[in-house]
Amino acid sequence: MHVPDGFIDAPTSVATGVLAAAGVAVALRGARKELDDRTAPLAGVTAAFVFAAQMLNFPVAGGTSGHLLGGTLAAILVGPFTGVLVVSVVLLAQALIFADGGLTALGVNITTMALTTVLVGYLVFRALVRVLPRTRPSVTVAAFTAAVLSVPAAAVAFTVLYEIGGTTDVPIGKVITAMVGVHVLIGIGEALITALTVSSVLAVRPDLVYGARDLARPLVLRNAPLAEAQEGRA
Amino acid sequence: MSTRKFLGAALLAALVLAGVVSFYASSSPDGLEKVAADKGIDAKVEDHASKDSPLADYGVKGVENARLSGGLAGVAGVAVVLVAGTGLFWVIRRKPQTAE
């Protein structure tokens, strides 16, 4: 979904760039709480993995392909603030080195593919984890659902920006129908990759999944009275 | 599985996906490209400012073999993103109190 230069006019690109910068600034501040000696390298590897997965375009309907956006995946693995930074680092490298996503459109791309996907994906994920039973399959189901919705959400965000400052005059109804339609299909691919990756990490190192840290809580609660009892005995 | 082993395995997966599997990725236009072309959103699209980058469009300039060119570009991308990302996250992380 990388927007090239020339789709969105200069004033809108600049304004969206300011919005993206503000979002990244908030993420930089929030990520401090999510990152420590153990999770910082994990976040770096997550960024490398998202870059790699974004190269893997999968076919959807009618001569069209899609690829992982990765915002939901990154937010679940390493936290929402860090997730925004993970996708932003990937988008920056793609725009500067691989000529994928325009330089003047970088703010647009960060807004649609980093801020929107993380915001929508992580909110849906948290809401579902709260209502579902506290089990690993629940986390995977929540990840799948959140990822499905995050992709059409990014398509809507693009359509809004296009309506505000598109360089061409295609009626918004046509744009939104086409964009959401194809991105619902791409969302299914996003969801499969996200759920597969999250469940794989949960299988080997559940403690490394930021979005599943609640699962570890009962263990802590059970240990606490034990420790107190031992102190009492001593 | 130790954290070190886990990170190694995840990185290896990224390298294999970008360096080998990417060759088999669909080359059809992506969702936005297709919609843009069908509806005329791309009428005023501009050339990319980095189109002459040695790694533009996920290929190494001058390497004729498509499999090798794309694979090397993918591996280079994974390396760049890993170093830039880890560097950033390491700098902004919560430092242990004893280190101050």
Automatic annotation (TrEMBL), chain A:
<keyword id="KW-1133">Transmembrane helix</keyword>
<feature type="transmembrane region" description="Helical">
    <location>
        <begin position="7"/>
        <end position="28"/>
    </location>
</feature>
<feature type="transmembrane region" description="Helical">
    <location>
        <begin position="73"/>
        <end position="99"/>
    </location>
</feature>
<keyword id="KW-0812">Transmembrane</keyword>
<feature type="transmembrane region" description="Helical">
    <location>
        <begin position="182"/>
        <end position="204"/>
    </location>
</feature>
<feature type="transmembrane region" description="Helical">
    <location>
        <begin position="141"/>
        <end position="162"/>
    </location>
</feature>
<keyword id="KW-0472">Membrane</keyword>
<keyword id="KW-0813">Transport</keyword>
<protein>
    <recommendedName>
        <fullName>Cobalamin biosynthesis protein CbiM</fullName>
    </recommendedName>
</protein>
<feature type="transmembrane region" description="Helical">
    <location>
        <begin position="105"/>
        <end position="129"/>
    </location>
</feature>
<keyword id="KW-1003">Cell membrane</keyword>
<feature type="transmembrane region" description="Helical">
    <location>
        <begin position="40"/>
        <end position="61"/>
    </location>
</feature>
<dbReference type="Pfam" id="PF01891">
    <property type="entry name" value="CbiM"/>
</dbReference>
<dbReference type="InterPro" id="IPR002751">
    <property type="entry name" value="CbiM/NikMN"/>
</dbReference>
TrEMBL record, chain B:
<keyword id="KW-0812">Transmembrane</keyword>
<protein>
    <recommendedName>
        <fullName>PDGLE domain-containing protein</fullName>
    </recommendedName>
</protein>
<keyword id="KW-1133">Transmembrane helix</keyword>
<dbReference type="InterPro" id="IPR025937">
    <property type="entry name" value="PDGLE_dom"/>
</dbReference>
<feature type="signal peptide">
    <location>
        <begin position="1"/>
        <end position="25"/>
    </location>
</feature>
<feature type="transmembrane region" description="Helical">
    <location>
        <begin position="71"/>
        <end position="92"/>
    </location>
</feature>
<keyword id="KW-1003">Cell membrane</keyword>
<feature type="domain" description="PDGLE">
    <location>
        <begin position="4"/>
        <end position="94"/>
    </location>
</feature>
<keyword id="KW-0732">Signal</keyword>
<dbReference type="Pfam" id="PF13190">
    <property type="entry name" value="PDGLE"/>
</dbReference>
<keyword id="KW-0472">Membrane</keyword>
